[in-house]
Amino acid sequence: MRQVGSVLWPKLRTLQIYGANTGVGKTIFSTILCQAFRKEFEKVHYLKPISTGPLQEADDSHLSTFGPGIRSKTLYQFSDPVSPHLAVRGSSQDISDNAVRRAVHDELSSYADGQDGVAIVETAGGVLSPAPSGITQADLYRPLRLPVLLVGDHRLGGIGSTISAWESLHIRGYDVQSIALFDESRYGNYTYLRDYFAERSVDAFSITPPPEARATASEDIESMRNYYSNASDSAQVTSFVDRFLHSHDQRIESLQSMPKQATEAIWHPFMQHSERNENTVIAMDSAYGDYFQTYQKKPSQSVADPGPASTQETSLITPAFDASASWWTQGLGHGNPQLALTAAHAAGRYGHVMFASAIHEPALTLAQTLIQSMGNPRLSKVFYTDNGSTGMEVAVKMALRAASKRNGWSPDENVEILGLIGSYHGDTIGTMDCSEPSIYNKKVEWYRGRGHWLDFPTVKMRDGQWIVEVPEQLRNELGDTQRFESLDKVFDLDARKSDREIYRKYLDGEIDQLRQAGRNFGALIMEPVILGAGGMNLADPIFQRCLVDAVRESSPSASDETDWRGMPVIFDEVFTGLYRLGRFSAASFLGVDADIVVNAKLLTGGLLPLCTTTASEAIFEAFLSNDKSDALLHGHSYTAHAVGCAVANESLKTMAKISHSADWAAYRKDWSLPAVETSSASPTQQLLWSVWSQDFVKAVSHKPNVDSVFAIGSVFAMSLKDPAGSGYASTAATGLRDRLLAGTEPGQAVIHSRVLGNVLYLMGAMTSTPETLAGVEKTVLKALE
């Protein structure tokens, strides 16, 4: 699984030259710096990825003339002196962004021969000039995240263009180490920019402009040679060279020291710290697209002793596929420039504004979008929180109040929730009580477990066959394991009439027994389709549908069709909602509407924490009175954070567009489905598909150490066999996790995954390409061997 990512070689120092505009002197500064570095190192390289214009005027030719001993090269040369995106069209070539990145990466890798050296990579045009594909240069080269020298504009208007160029790079996560420009007295650009950037901890320096052209070519060449010799020896350039070399060493030192420092200062989540050490903590240098850019110290390796001598120096940074989608939040790729710009705009417009008795456009737009897009006629009001746990806490408060008020229960009466075994709804004290005793909560001193949890049949593939497996203790009531020829058949609610009858009879009896025992239930809480943190269990959708129907039909009809009956139904779609399973709402697979729906995770595309709890009008009205104490007195300092709401609006708009993309059409085709899906599909047209190929899912299901698998939407999960038993405490999947992180081939990207006991799961982002996921599949299959 080959992936171009950020690079950091111990002995090869890399520097990328960007220009605030065209004609600002990038090549002149590159030549000066190459000569200055040549005084420090024998090996200095100049690389021009893309160049347009006549060959004799190419920048690498300039370096060959004025940079003795400098190794110069251009990767893509176009004779037409126009923008690269136009030059490519005129040449009839098809050059992808990945091809350019890979060419740059491979060329730089060839320079990393274990000897001290420097490589300068000079871009073409300005920071936001188009690349061959049409995207901006800043976006094209961002995955490499090379340190940058920005050549500012010394001309009239150059102050603004230089600051704009720096902001464009800064907002994309580049490290702009210095600003350099020609000195001039008329406009005072350098003086202003020096002070401006000093306030932002960025150094700036200037050099004298090159001399005017001489009468003859030979005189001109001699004049420029003298200029370059003097400029490369100048105090300003020498000072920059020293700072740059120091920053390279400091970056390495910081990466290598962070894991150890973390063990002293950080309390990590979901980790037993007696097992933690500096070899198990991974330093994240950056992230882009589907990949983390990581540093992890190898137990047998140190910087002082990097291992056996090699003609190829290895980058300290390894791309690692984010297989957990960063705890299920990642939807539109790390470092997404559009989301970053959206966040910056909202931060500049609002910052954060308090939400008590107020409204702002991003929050209003998001609320209206959610209510309309869910296709649930019950929902009418959106309450904002900051994460799934608190969003579920609010949902429980809403439901318990509504149920208690309608049933006339006093505050002293015990009110419980009804749910499913293996549920997980968050880490707050209240939401922990909504799950049965488990590793997550039973050692929390305040935990009481206020509810009743039903076991349920699960869907999985075993040895290439889709099955619905009934828990052993329920087989007398629900029957034996069933086999299906496809996942679509499992989700065909109309066709499985006999199963619906069996499930309803069982559930009606269970609910009746609970009521006769005098137990008061204030809500049915479910994660529709997949129960996530409890172990990645794909629930039989018929069972979940029948449970909702049984709850609602166990009491008289409500006042209207949007009112709740029996008890309020809460759908926890924090994990499964918002296109995670290929559709806007996971509830649509069940053909039933909830009274309260909680969304988070993918809401902001993986950029910011934000959560919404959307409720029906009947739930809302349960809090209405003339008494302030009857209100929903819940909120956060950052409620309806304007930046988060703005990003969520952009995220949802982008994901809706992606759902009709060519990549998603290819995924559906692989699962033999129509290219376009609508959220209004009937229960008999469930259109089940996954970004993970059918061949891969089947192949894994046949592995001797794999018990079962399933895939739906962007989610793939495999349960590994464990003689000691399954569950969160199992260590059966840790070996596979560690093999994936170590890598299966030298120089290849690795896979950063999370496990839930004996379950290892993989998730793609909405923007993951078929090529990327195919590489992940190949690596996983090899690791399973």
Give a written overview of the molecule.
The protein is an alpha/beta fold. The protein folds into two domains: 12-211 and 223-252, Rossmann fold; 337-664, Aspartate Aminotransferase, domain 2, CATH 3.40.640.10. 35% of the residues lie in helices and 18% in strands. It has 24 helices and 27 strands. Strands 3-2-4-1-5-6-7 form a seven-stranded parallel sheet, sandwiched between helices. A seven-stranded mixed sheet has the order 11-22-21-20-17-12-13, with helices on both faces. Helix 12 (361-373) runs parallel beside helix 20. The longest helix is centred in the first third of the chain and has 31 residues, at 235-265. The radius of gyration is 30 Å and the shape is elongated. Mean pLDDT is 91; it is low at 300-310 and 676-684. InterPro entries: Aminotrans_3, Aminotrans_3_PPA_site, DTB_synth_BioD, P-loop_NTPase, PyrdxlP-dep_Trfase, PyrdxlP-dep_Trfase_major. One of its GO terms (molecular function) is ATP binding. This is Bifunctional dethiobiotin synthetase/7,8-diamino-pelargonic acid aminotransferase, mitochondrial. One of its GO terms (biological process) is biotin biosynthetic process. Keywords: Aminotransferase, Transferase.
